[in-house]
Design brief:
The structure holds 2 protein chains of 2 kinds.
Chain A: H1 2-15, H2 17-45, E1 57-66, E2 69-73, H3 79-87, E3 92-99, E4 102-108, E5 111-120, H4 124-127, E6 132-135, E7 145-149, H5 150-157, E8 166-169, E9 173-181, E10 195-198, H6 199-205, H7 207-212, E11 221-227, H8 233-239, H9 243-248, E12 260-265, H10 266-269, E13 275-276, E14 279-280, H11 285-312, H12 314-326, H13 331-368, H14 379-405, H15 409-414, H16 421-456, E15 467-471, H17 479-488, E16 492-498, E17 508-509, E18 512-514, E19 525-530, H18 534-538, E20 542-545, E21 558-562, H19 563-569, E22 578-583, E23 587-597, E24 612-616, E25 622-627, H20 633-647, E26 655-657, H21 658-664, H22 667-701, H23 703-711, H24 716-750, H25 761-788, H26 791-797
Chain B: E1 2-13, E2 16-28, E3 33-37, H1 44-51, E4 59-64, E5 67-68, H2 74-84, E6 85-88, H3 100-110, H4 115-128, H5 144-156, E7 162-166, H6 174-191, E8 194-198, H7 202-205, E9 210-215, E10 218-219
Parallel strand pairs in B: 3-8, 3-9, 6-7, 7-8
Antiparallel strand pairs in B: 1-2, 1-4, 4-5, 9-10
The chains are: A alpha+beta, B alpha/beta.
The structure holds adenosine-5'-diphosphate and magnesium ion.
Domain ABC3 transporter permease C-terminal (chain A): 293-408, 678-783
Subcellular location (chain A): Cell membrane
Transmembrane segments (chain A): 21-41, 287-309, 334-361, 381-407, 428-449, 675-699, 727-746, 758-779
Chain lengths: 798, 221
């Protein structure tokens, strides 16, 4: 019985070849998109779920009052860990203080590697989702120990057993390997942590740390907690709220920040990472929703095609329905047959979609920066797939099945059957839905790219061309010699040192005073310490005053401010004015403003430039060098490396082009843009396949009418117009519906950016026009063919 | 077997009732072979469709084997039809996508017969109709007469008590027509199948035991 339905369904698919091809092509495209998006969503939703106790783990976060705004921070002061431990003994199984993951150099024999790792207290090994491959789980008990990821162990020791081997970390930390853990998965917040070092080692080797550990002033550290079983996360989160405020009392200046603490559960770290006014405002979860909705809509579009084409074919199939009824089929059996056809089509499309997904995964992974795979052998995946195919097959087959099986046997056999008006309307509605979505996506994509371009066109305030950047150590007074050596290679036109890379700001500070500053104003500046050649090397633009110079001994207490800083401070005539920096722990000094520089875009290209103070000091983390124009890059880099190795024999020379670093800042938006572009093209493709199918069947239905019109003297142009108008009308209606939606959505998206384009009406006009042309082009194949057809043929066939 | 009383059938054409059947009263007994004749448009097909439960009259009563069949639910009607009635069309109406074998098999599938039973029945019919060599061909590969044989074989597959045929020989040449009529006669006499056929040919009508003449929706003889 069932076999029979499948057989008939199969034959019917073969017989209506064009129809089947359009159907399967459209549906498999939709299914591929849905499949890829599902894999992505699944990956996002399983973020940080590796730890068996993930529901009991949280990070301690802090809200502080800054100039009337609640700022939320993941980093807190170190003494808080001890305070939490002693005040809430019952609640916490462990409280772990950690330093943010950072880069360090690992030396073993003649090897040196720069890698990202984390300093954590010994119980940190229970908080990170570690799978121990070799050695001990609690490997951080002794201060001089290190635990390595498998990748790290492989890179340093190859196949030899690393346990007990001694490494040197940076200049002065000797540690011995106590454990190796499986590389943390991509969907873990800790994925970049390649090694763990006990926190206690920090204080042992760095005297600053023993100071920091006791200071409430520096919110520089992370605290992770694991709750005891049966303790409620939300109630503990409320209980600890005022702990820090109560400890600090009202009299210290720090309490004016009115710190309030709370717990951010591990399962929310990844998807709910945005904060505003001390409240969580979501985060990546928006994208999970967005893509789920898009995936749903793409699938909907494909299903709509299926429904549209099946009902359009109704007339052709009416006779078959009549015969089947006349030889004893009841309605249920007929519906079953049509369902078999739709499920079979869906099944074939799904197989094709699996293949398409398989081949597009590398590209998709690249785009989404993930390592997704299709879990073919996973039983759940197979079950879900089968359920999904059935569901889509049944849903998209339902309307055609109901419609086709309802035909009256006698009328259809008599040939009295004709497509009634009531069948046309739903199909038109469906086409309108398709094109509305396609138009919204098209406009959205164009706006995304316009916004990215807008940010890229921004005046940077310096010249990125041929500028390279690499990390360097502080060569204890030999910096000037290093610079001269580099210049002697003849490949560089200038060289400068700085504490922050050209495309970021690494240091911020408060506690500045200047003439006219309001005493309640809580200031904050970016600080960059640079060598005197910095401005020349970057080619920044002085707006007032002068650049730093070696010739002025006093320049060690001079500063240059950017224009934003001048506006922020509200100083008139800044040159020659004095600012004072008084900071509780480290400094109390006065500086003279000698120059104002045009804003350098170093952080987000979408945000206004932050108020920045440039100091002339020998401290350095980075070296910026401009290659002479037209020089062979490879050759130049070899020469630079030779000099670098002379000064830092055991450091790795890792350089980057500033332009590339800057381009990185667009990568997220560009990825979103590319993804949107692909989805837009697919949506358009599916929609066009839809109208192509429809126009094919419409042409068939109106063959006789066209024949008669031709006999009556209609010309080809007027006939093509007649046939096209139906669809043009629908596309225009879609555009009118889509534009307000697109307007609203794109404006909403642009709210994320401080510097943004103003949306212009022609974007909408041109996009709509383009879509109309694409639609016209699609249907023209069929309309022209029909209009050209010999009327004698079409009339005889009737 | 069949009793029609006061059957009316009309269509609303431009607000007016246009009658197709007017007050039809008719009794047909089991084992009869009836021919319906009349000019084109007189309502013959309509009457046949009503008899075959494919269409419903607007008024009147229809007793099929002493059971009132009008206003039955679609499912009951379908069951009744599947059990007792076979239909043969002038235009054969075979399913183009199916082979000869499968066309004949289809009503049995709808009757939920097992595969082995179906096989036996279809093989038997194919044998009897002498179309063994054609069983894997598709309708388009057959001549009109052959197609009609398949159509009849299909109608007979469910061993109906009542065979309805609407101008079964209308598209055939006279020799093919005669063969079909012989077949009907044989079915009627040897298997006791009640047959009602619509025909334009006096000669074919003579094969039956009774002739009913329709004119403008009324029985005139
Ligand atoms: N759906 C319909 N709407 C209006 N009139 C119809 C319809 N179906 C059949 N008729 C009319 O009913 C009459 C009888 O048709 P039919 O039973 O096919 O006649 P016959 O088979 O005797 O040629 C015809 O005049 C035809 O026009
Ligand atoms: Mg007729």
């Amino acid at each position: 019985m069932f076999q029979n339905y499948i057989k008939i369904a199969w034959r019917s698919l073969i017989k209506n070849r064009l129809h089947t091809v359009i159907n399967i092509a459209g549906l498999s495209t939709g299914l591929t998109v849905t499949l890829l998006i599902s894999l992505w969503v699944r990956d996002e939703l399983t973020f940080d779920r590796q730890h068996p106790n993930y529901q009991n783990i949280a990070q301690v976060m802090i809200n502080t009052q800054q100039n009337g705004i609640l700022e939320t921070s993941k980093t807190v002061a170190a003494p808080l860990a001890e305070a939490l431990r002693s005040n809430y003994r019952d609640a916490f199984k462990s409280v772990v203080l950690a330093r943010q993951a950072g880069d360090h150099l690992l030396h073993y024999e003649d090897k040196t590697l720069r890698a990202t790792g984390k300093f954590v207290e010994k119980e940190g090994t229970n908080i990170l989702p570690l799978q121990i491959l070799n050695g001990k789980r609690d490997g951080l008990i002794k201060p001089n120990s290190i635990m390595l990821s498998q990748e790290m162990s492989q890179a340093i020791f190859g196949e030899t057993d690393p346990i007990g081997k001694t490494l040197k970390v940076d200049d002065n930390m000797l540690v011995s390997v106590t454990g190796v853990y499986k590389d943390l998965p991509n969907n873990s917040t800790f994925k970049e942590v390649k090694y763990l070092i006990p926190w206690s080692l920090l204080a042992a080797v760095d005297k600053n740390y023993s100071k920091l550990e006791k200071s409430w002033e520096f919110n520089w550290f992370e605290i992770f907690i694991e709750l005891n079983p049966q303790i409620s996360m939300s109630s503990v989160s409320k209980e600890i709220k005022d702990l820090q405020k109560n400890i600090l009392k009202d009299n210290t200046p720090l309490s004016t920040y009115s710190p309030s603490l709370f717990l951010h559960p591990m399962e929310k770290w990844h998807l709910y990472g945005d904060w505003k006014d001390g409240k969580n405002t979501g985060g990546l979860i928006t994208f999970v929703w967005l893509f789920s909705i898009i995936g749903f809509f793409v699938l909907l579009l494909a299903a709509v095609n299926f429904i549209n084409l099946s009902t359009a074919k109704a007339q052709k199939r009416a006779k078959e329905v009549g015969i089947r009824k006349a030889i004893g089929s009841n309605r249920k059996q007929l519906m079953l047959q049509f369902f078999c056809e739709s499920v079979l089509t869906t099944f074939l499309s799904y197989l094709l979609a699996l293949a398409l997904a398989y081949f597009s995964l590398p590209f998709f992974n690249d785009l989404s920066v993930k390592s997704l795979y299709i879990p073919y052998t996973d039983l759940n995946f197979l079950l879900i797939s089968i359920g999904f195919v059935l569901l889509i097959g049944l849903l998209s087959g339902a309307y055609p099945a109901l419609l086709l099986s309802s035909f009256n046997a006698i009328n259809t056999l008599r040939g009295l059957f004709s497509t009634s008006k009531k069948m046309v309307t739903p199909r038109q509605v469906l086409v309108v839905i398709q094109f509305t979505i396609a138009t919204i996506l098209s406009i959205g994509t164009i706006i995304i790219f316009q916004q990215i371009q807008h940010a890229k066109n921004r005046q940077l305030g310096y010249n990125q061309k041929d500028l390279i950047s690499f990390r360097m150590s502080n060569f204890n007074g030999r910096n000037e010699a290093f610079r001269n050596n580099l210049l002697q290679t003849g490949v560089l036109s200038d060289v400068a040192q700085t504490t922050s890379p050209a495309t970021d700001n690494w240091s911020n500070a408060s506690g500045f005073f200047w003439e006219g500053k309001n005493s309640t104003f809580k200031d904050n500046f970016s600080l960059v310490a640079v060598s005197p050649d910095y401005g020349k090397t970057l080619e920044w633009k002085m707006m007032a005053g002068r650049d730093f110079s070696k010739d002025f001994v006093s320049d060690s207490s001079s500063v240059i401010l950017n224009e934003s800083a001048i506006r922020y401070m509200g100083i008139k005539e800044p040159i020659g004015k004095t600012i004072r920096w008084k900071d509780e722990t480290f400094s109390d000094a006065s500086y003279t403003i000698i120059g104002v520089v045009k804003d350098l875009v170093s952080q987000s290209p979408y945000e206004p430039v932050y108020q920045t103070i440039y100091f002339m000091q020998p401290a350095a983390n980075f070296l910026l060098a401009r290659l002479k124009p037209g020089i062979n890059t490879q050759d130049a880099l070899t020469k630079i490396k030779t000099v670098f190795n002379k000064y830092a024999p055991d450091e790795a020379f890792e350089f980057s082009f500033v332009k590339d670093d800057f381009t990185q800042k667009f990568s997220f938006e560009e990825r979103v843009g590319k993804l949107a572009l692909i989805l837009t093209l697919l949506t358009l493709l599916i929609s066009c396949m839809g109208i192509f199918g429809l126009v094919t069947f419409m042409a068939e239905q109106r063959k006789k009418e066209i024949g008669i019109r031709k006999v009556l003297g209609a010309n080809i142009q007027s006939l093509t117009q007649l046939l096209s108008f139906e669809f043009v009308k629908l596309v225009i209606i879609s555009t009118l519906i889509a534009i307000p939606f697109a307007w609203w959505l794109t404006n909403k998206w642009l709210e994320n950016f401080s510097l943004k384009i103003t949306i212009s009406w022609w974007t909408f006009a041109y996009t709509s026009l383009a879509i109309l042309l694409v639609a016209l082009f699609t249907i023209s194949f069929q309309t022209v063919k029909t209009a050209l057809a010999n009327p004698a043929d079409s009339l005889r066939n009737e | 077997m069949i009793q029609l009383s006061n059957i009316f059938k009309w269509y609303n054409v431009g607000g007016n009732r246009s009658f197709v059947l007017k007050d039809i009263n008719l009794t047909i007994n089991e084992g009869e072979f009836v021919s319906i004749m009349g000019p084109s448009g007189s309502g013959k097909s309509t009457l046949l469709h009503i008899l075959g439960l494919l269409d419903e009259p607007n008024e009147g009563s229809y007793l099929f084997q002493e059971q009132e069949v009008l206003h039955l639910k679609e499912k009951q009607r379908s069951t009744l039809y599947k059990e007792h009635i076979g239909f043969v069309f002038q235009a054969y109406h075979l399913i183009d996508e199916l082979t000869v074998y499968e066309n004949i098999e289809t009503p049995l599938i709808y009757k939920n017969l097992k595969g082995s039973e179906r096989k036996a029945i279809v093989a038997d019919l194919i044998d009897r109709f002498g179309i063994v060599g054609k069983k894997d061909l598709f309708p388009a590969q057959l001549s009109g007469g052959q197609q009609q044989l398949v159509g009849i074989a299909r109608a007979l597959a469910t061993t109906p008590k009542l065979l309805l045929a609407d101008e079964p020989t209308g598209n055939l040449n006279s020799k093919q027509g005669e063969e079909i009529m012989e077949l009907f006669k044989q079915l009627n006499q040897e298997d006791g199948v009640t047959i009602i056929q619509v025909t334009h040919s006096e000669k074919n009508a003579e094969y039956g035991s009774r002739i009913i003449e329709l004119l403008d929706g009324q029985v005139v003889k």
